[in-house]
Amino acid sequence: MTMVESGSADTETSPGVIAPVPRVAIHAFCESQSLNALIQSAAQDRRMDKAAVKTNTGGVEAALAAYREEQTPNVIVLEASADRAPFLANLDALANYCDDGTRVVVIGRANDISLYRALIARGVSEYLVEPFDLLDFIRAISELYAKPGKGVLGRIVAVYGARGGVGASTVAHHTAWSIAAKVDISTIIADCDLPFGTAGLDFNQDPPQGISDAVFAPDRLDINMLDRLMVKCNDRLTLLPAPATLERNYDFDVDAFDGVIDLLRMSAPMIILDLPHVWTAWSRRLLTGADEVVVVASPDLANLRNLKNLQDTLGPARTNDGKIKLVMNMVGVPKRPEIAVKDFSSSINIEPSLVLPFDPKLFGAAANNGQMVAEVSGGAKIGALVENFARLVCGKPELRKPKAGLLAGLKSSKLGFSFGKKS
Fold first, then answer.
1. DSSP per-residue string spanning 289-312
2. Is residue 116 domain-resident?
3. What domain count does the chain have?
């Protein structure tokens, strides 16, 4: 048996994206406590959710002793000792016990090209030189399973409402349209609200098939089937619509959307998930696993409470990711008591990335026409706000600053509260 060398993938990766590690077994043999701790921490990251990780003390000698008696896992991680010759000799011996398909990652402290060549010649898949951080390790494991020539590695952005009716779908659709039309990045918007989704209406599409066909037929799902289910809105924007019917129950297992997400990552650089305001095992999994989470809220106490709960729940599962991106929507409703945006954001320690004023006439006209606000008369200013937010989501610099007068007329509420503060 020989160890397998992974081919380098010709992959166009969105900024900061690390593909989730597939369902593999990873055994690490560590000579130092620091590396043992790093790998154990990596195992808790959302990108390693499917992988089964086991750490062991001792280096290649311990691995050699273990695999004389048992099968090798999908990935063996070895910390190299300072003595090069004995390590390579033990590595040669270990190769005799490795099953077909086993990949070996070696971690060492010597930035030595001759050592690197010696390892690659023996079929080692990757050589990491310390120091490196947790995400570097996860990226190395992820890239072992990147398929050569698969092209795109898309960035998943999940958009979720802190409360029902806050306009999360509207924000998701406008953001996706702006990324495609203004930032000029190919984008897919997936409507995950299967019974009540509005993406088809907002983009003036009425396809006979959609995301439910993919979710209910995981055994038949492949890239060709997914292509047939999607609708092209324009050269850069593609829609995976919801059926928006009540003819069946939409009760899903926790991993029901996994296959769809994996294929979407291979299909476009940016994927916007329009998630319904439900709390289920599958919706939690989509939020936890997304590269970016956008939460849309209105400035009232229920939204503030729910957003705080989301922070507390998602935070531990996303410790190596950035904060939630907050969008404050429908700000300035006449005669409605509101929490001032400044007070709202300070209570949860998140500055809003986008603040949209209440303008039912403008948004209503756009929705009724199957258009985005930027496409209808009078929508240029709000369109500029959304475009800058779209650029932020994509990691691009702003093109313009919103005019100060756009939100100047909004009244700050004097509604008092002490949410989340200890007395």
1. H-SEEEEEE-SSHHHHHHHHHHHH
2. yes
3. 2
